[in-house]
Amino acid sequence: MADAAPRLKSLVEQLLGVPLPVRIRAWDGSEAGPPGAPALVVHNRRALRRLLWKPGELGLARAWVAGELGIDGDLYTALDLMAGLIWERGDDARTLTQAVRDPEVRAAVRGLAKLAGPLPPPPPPREEARRGRGHLHTRRSDRRAISHHYDVGNDFYEIVLGPSMVYSCAYWAGPDSTLEDAQRDKLELVCRKLGLKPGQRLLDVGCGWGSMAIHAAREHGVGVVGVTLSQEQAAYARKRIADEGLTDRIEIRVQDYRDVADGPYDAISSIGMAEHVGAERYLEYARYLHALLKPGGRLLNHQIARRPQRDESSYSVDAFIDAYVFPDGELAPLGTTVTQLERAGFEVRDVESLREHYALTLRRWVANLEAQWGRAQRLTSPGRARVWRLYMAASALAFERNRIGVNQVLAVRTPERGASGMPLRSRTWN
Fold first, then answer.
1. Percentage of residues in the chain having pLDDT higher than 90
2. H helices within 221-298, ranges in order?
3. Mean pLDDT score of the chain, rounded to an integer?
4. What pLDDT sits at residue 322?
5. Residue 219 dihedral angles phi and psi, to the nearest 5°
6. String of DSSP letters for 208-239
7. DSSP of 124-174, one letter per residue?
8. Is the preceding peptide bond at 264 cis, omega within 30 degrees of 0?
9. 41 bridge partner residues
């Protein structure tokens, strides 16, 4: 008798204390849940064993990456419906400790264990980050984390990012703009905020595949040093630079920003890199960049931010993102970032939120990935492709629902006499 789906739906609702907003389709072909809603497809009961051994987001992520869970219907709609159960449970939600004291919850867990079968959970999918021993955000641990995320294959990133090869929030004139135009406009916005002029020196921290360096050198006549910890990014960037005929203006190094010692620079761009720095190292990061700038030099720090927590001591890194996407990455509230930059000696001159722009960017990246889904799986692995589809779609919704934001912070190493060199009407970006 095919009855796994209604049994599973009843048990999960008993555990959560709320109705499920999506349908469930089980491995035996049975279905249960709201008519017309997207379906959470449980392909194999191994998914239940993962959830029992790792309750919450990490168990769900492992089952998704392994292909044991799927979505039938629009992915964004399904994630939007489930957001309240996974990411946005309020202060009145029961903690795990409170829940297990409830006899009904204990009965539901026993029911799930019976439905899942007696075997132990499978090992985590191989795409999960391998952890080293020791402290976070050392030079060695940062190289390992960056390699996990960026050394997936340049061909794969070409599918996702498109010809611009810019892996950060674009700057949209409107939703009908092309991704390439929006990314070009973002690079130009950064250059204008930095006030780049021919003959100046720019340090691009976390230079990726070289797009910012190429745009700044070609369009504004500056000399650029780009640093990255990814060997694959560096090789790709160097080839692009050679093809553009810009090798005399741009140098790409596989180097930690903490090892850059050839300042001073007229300007520094840090676009989508500071999320890797970590809270304990952030003031150190800001002080390094401050020391590398000439007096009057500008820093453009483009960084994702989370919303402040009522109790900051209870903040924990997103389990799925940490295990499968950005190992050791951390998000800080915007106010914390501004404070740390000021503590390092910077004068913060402008803050611009691009939250809606990142949601649009992520949706384009997801569309790119889905359009070449088969090739993306062949270039990496089916599990890795599933990681990226879920991560980008969920992130798009997180920006749209204001759970996270992204900001460009323009700061100056203002000389002691106080002349910042900024225009009186700074939004003209002259």
1. 70
2. 231-244, 282-292
3. 90
4. 83
5. -90, -20
6. TTSHHHHHHHHHH--EEEEEES-HHHHHHHHH
7. PPTTSPPPPSS-TTSHHHHHHHHHHHHTT-HHHHHHHH-TT---S----SS
8. yes
9. 25, 70
